[in-house]
Amino acid sequence: MTTSRPPRRIVSLVPGVTEIFCLLGLHERLVAISHECDFPPSIQSLPRVTRSLLDPTLSSQLIDQAVRQQAVAGGSTLALDLARLQSLAPDLIVTQSLCDVCAVGARDVQSLLGELPGPPQLLAIHPHTLEDLFAAVLELAHATDTLPQAHSLIDDWRRRCAAVRSRTAQLDHLPRTLMLEWVDPPFDAGHWTPQLVEWAGGRPLSGRPGLPSRRLDWSEITAADPEVLVVACCGFDVSRSRQELPLLRQAPGFHDWTCTRRGNLFLMDGNSWFSRSGPRLVEGLEMLAHTLHPHLHPAPLGGPPAERFSAVAALC
User: Fold this and answer.
1) Which CA distances in Å does 287 have to 26, 98, 245, 270?
2) CA–CA separation, 36 and 53 (whole Å)
3) Averaged over 127-137, what is the pLDDT?
4) What is the DSSP letter of 212?
5) N or C: which end of the chain has fewer CB within 10 A?
6) Which residue segments constitute the domains of the chain, with CATH numbers given?
């Protein structure tokens, strides 16, 4: 999808896309971002044109209930600042059609295009796997006349993924690995995450690459008996995810799981490394590989190691 000349005023409503644009050298063309965009630090001063309608202090259970109620009612948990968009007069808006909870959806933006000057070009990405992400990067680069930069980035990402997969191929045992992207209720991370688990040297507990995240029953987890548990809550950093651990420790069967008995319980920053369809998924792969098999996969330079947590709450 191209225009006669590359867009000069870009609005990114997707955190991962904002990161991609910065890597493509387009920081100066960004005129606004979403309230979720927090990386790289250089974009912090840009105007925000979205906001969440959810109370961030709610428990994960109440957040889940609110999201489901909005979905049934046909509403949204996100609001778009139309007046600010009109004043900024972008010529390209990038959104997504993967998850209406994580970012403003393409349909919501499409319905407002006629009220914006231009109107601007709308581009929506919808990656479900790493290959889809690479294709989306090329689509973004095609629209912004940055294809050489995109090909260079993708070549580097493919090289790093191949290095992880090559080391993983030496393993005789791939531990049953559960990546929880939500705790109450429990959700098995989907889309690209099962692919990352496989490449890192684990056996995804129930997810299949490319399919959406799936709600689980605690009895289902107990029957599958994970050998490794990684809590990487969608949209939460480690500090916020740590608040969910008391709920996890009270879950039926938790203390009987192999991962619990062996102490293979980890917290990781889902917001930075796993939830976003962006370039840091590759770093997430490298971090996960080191977490699962530290003797085989070196610790990556870009991020902190996974935090091991105890099955029993610490005493004050």
Assistant:
1) 27, 24, 21, 12
2) 13
3) 95
4) P
5) C
6) 10-126 (3.40.50.1980), 173-308 (3.40.50.1980)
Where is 276: in which H helix or E strand?
none
What are the contacts of 27-34 at 24+ separation with CB within 8 A?
Answer: 29/144, 31/88, 31/90, 32/84, 32/85, 32/88, 32/90, 34/103, 34/104
Backbone angles phi, psi at 94, to 5 degrees: -115, 125
Measured in whole angstroms, the distance separating CA 264 from the mean position of its chain's CA atoms is 23
Q: Tell me: the pLDDT tens digits for 190-226?
A: 999 999 999 999 999 876 788 989 999 999 999 999 9
Query: How far, in Å, CA of 66 to CA of 64, rounded?
Result: 5
Q: Which of 258, 238, 236, 260 is nearest to 248 (CA)?
A: 260
Q: What is the sign of the dihedral through the CA atoms of 157, 306, 267 and 194?
A: positive
The CA distance from 168 to 156, in Å, is: 19
Question: At residue 226, what is the residue type?
Answer: P
